[in-house]
């Protein structure tokens, strides 16, 4: 392709001749080539395409340098994004357009093209611009605004640094077309960048929705013990009053009480009365996870973070952003995971396993336990600073034996619930049955009561309901063994019987029906260690 030539005088392009028409045709061919080039480029290739286009423009028009400047959305900030110069000249240095070219800047913002055959031709009000052009060694230049959607998004400057140059008016429309080609390339890059950002945000939202969906799908499979809090005892009234007071806040809550007293139900009531009720209550049972899985469950992991981590997993704290996270059986949380939980409570920050990127979460924490945390602290199994963070607002749930006035109400509730489910009609509770349920201590609390009612209805043909209550009436009291103590004694008994063999045929894990890693986890939690054989002298 031919280059635009100067007239013999060295100052004007020849005009009106056949050669001039050929040059105009060559210019238009160049514009068509550039436009076609950008159509076929991907978003990642546009920057290189612009640089290559400036090179072709410089060579075709026989100018010394071409510079492209882009404006920020409001037009106040700007930056040189592309510059190309012939051998012997450097690309344009970074400049403050508003400070060093104030007149030029204002002219471009209103869409004016500035055609200077001589820098000396600048008007008097452009004294600062003239000084800068002179300092930069410019002889002549043409500056074209770049428009996108009726807004000026930048400029293209073509400059001669060693000679004066006249650009005929007939070439101005072609320069404007050149500006449009480059402006459209910039617009497409910006649109693709915005689209990529939007796609990324949509992907993150999709992952969030998928996480919520997966969690809710798992939750739907759960059979909750009851649908609402039943009772009229003073302790239940006090619990409901505490729930109403604390629910609208974001304060961390810990719910304390024996197994089966309805701790999860109270957690759900707090969540449903809070400002986060439109998001799901995210639940984690700390006792159901081994120590090597609980951290991944809570905080997530990256692909390849450990053996078996085949894909990235979003943790429950990330899912619970803007929602409520219920940490059930918090007393079973491994000691090595507790500092990371403390950090989330203090700073709202954590990292996924296998990642150094800090993630912030706005999750409201509700914890629950049937363990005596102060005793765990004394044994070195629970951090004191974590306890104080969790203990911001404790709610105590009384065992069923201490609110006997609620037992008949709960019985009627569960009878109605399971009668409909099983298609049976119960007329009444016999006096003997009523005496039994009032005299029984209900060590398993509401959960045990529900199971007793369901079992009784299954075994009843109709009419009167007869219940089969355990003959041993266990009442947990001070000095008696807890369920954890009984669990510990039984595991030790089995281990002794197999000479402390944990896994394999005839091992304790097989007898107990547990995975070996789960058994080891329980042994650690219950302070079970293999006794050291006595030496014989």
Set down the secondary structure blueprint.
Layout: H1 18-39, H2 46-61, E1 65-71, E2 78-85, H3 97-100, H4 102-109, E3 114-116, H5 127-136, E4 140-148, E5 151-160, H6 172-221, H7 234-246, E6 253-256, H8 263-272, E7 281-285, H9 291-299, E8 300-301, E9 313-314, H10 316-319, E10 324-328, H11 338-347, E11 349-351, E12 358-360, E13 364-369, H12 373-378, H13 384-390, E14 393-396, H14 407-422, E15 426-429, H15 431-439, H16 445-459, E16 463-465, H17 483-497, H18 508-512, H19 516-525
Parallel strand pairs: 6-13, 6-14, 7-10, 10-13, 15-16
Antiparallel strand pairs: 1-2, 1-5, 3-4, 4-5, 8-9, 11-12
Helix pairs in contact: 1-2, 1-6, 11-13, 14-16
Provide a descriptive summary of the structure in words.
Helix content is 45%, strand content 15%. The longest helix is centred in the middle third of the chain and has 50 residues, at 172-221. It folds into four domains: 18-192, GAF domain (Beta-Lactamase); 232-398, P-loop containing nucleotide triphosphate hydrolases (Rossmann fold, 3-Layer(aba) Sandwich); 401-465, Helicase, Ruva Protein, domain 3; 483-525. It has 19 helices and 16 strands. The protein is an alpha/beta fold and 537 residues long. Residues 1-16 and 217-227 have low confidence and may be disordered. The strands form five sheets. It has a five-stranded antiparallel beta sheet, with helices on both faces. Strand 4 (140-148) and strand 5 (151-160) form a beta hairpin.
